Amino acid sequence: MGKLIYGARKIDVPDRPLAHLQAVMVDKLRRGETFSLTLSADGAQKTMIFGPSVQVMFEYASNRTPRLNRNWLKRLSEVGYAGDGLQLVAEPDDPDES
């Protein structure tokens, strides 16, 4: 189980979804975007605001980098531009795994 570290908060996120969130979030931050991320953690829904001046860290349980699913990255990016901000959605099929 990996962790998304936001300030003093550590939120458990499995390594595979965390790698996909990291790719999308880093892309948004490189563009200078401010955005929200909503995750379910500890039985509650938590929303965090990220921007270029906010520090975030991604910590993985494994030292192996998960292979990224292009369809999932695309879907997460689309959700990230919706009114509710970035949210972790279910992983779609990966055409590269056929």
Shape: globular
**Mean pLDDT rating:** 91
Helix content: 25-40%
Largest sheet: 3 strands, antiparallel
Instruction: Please identify the oligomeric state.
Output: single chain
Count of DSSP-assigned helices: 2
Low-confidence stretches: none
Q: What's the gyration radius in Å?
A: 13 Å
Please give the order of strands in the largest beta sheet. 2-1-5
Count of domains? 1
Our measurement of the CA-to-CA distance between the termini, rounded to an integer number of angstroms, reads 27 Å
Content-based structural category: alpha+beta
Strand content of the residues, in percent?
25-35%
Number of strands: 6
Order of helices and strands: EEHEEEHE
List keywords for this structure.
single chain; 98 residues; alpha+beta; three-stranded antiparallel beta sheet; three-stranded mixed beta sheet; 2 helices; globular
How would you describe this protein?
It is built from two helices and six strands; from the N terminus they run E-E-H-E-E-E-H-E. The chain has 98 residues and is an alpha+beta fold. The protein has one domain. Strands 2-1-5 form a three-stranded antiparallel sheet. Strands 4-3-6 form a three-stranded mixed sheet. The N and C termini lie far apart (27 Å). Pfam families: DUF7882 (PF25355). Residues 1-91 form the DUF7882 domain. It comes from Agromyces sp. G08B096.
Topology summary:
Layout (H helix, E strand, L loop, with lengths): L1 E5 L2 E5 L1 H16 L4 E7 L2 E7 L5 E4 L10 H11 L5 E2 L11
Helix pairs in contact: 1-2
Write a concise synopsis of the structure shown:
With 98 residues, this protein is an alpha+beta fold. The chain has helices spanning 15-30, 70-80, and strands spanning 2-6, 9-13, 35-41, 44-50, 56-59, 86-87.
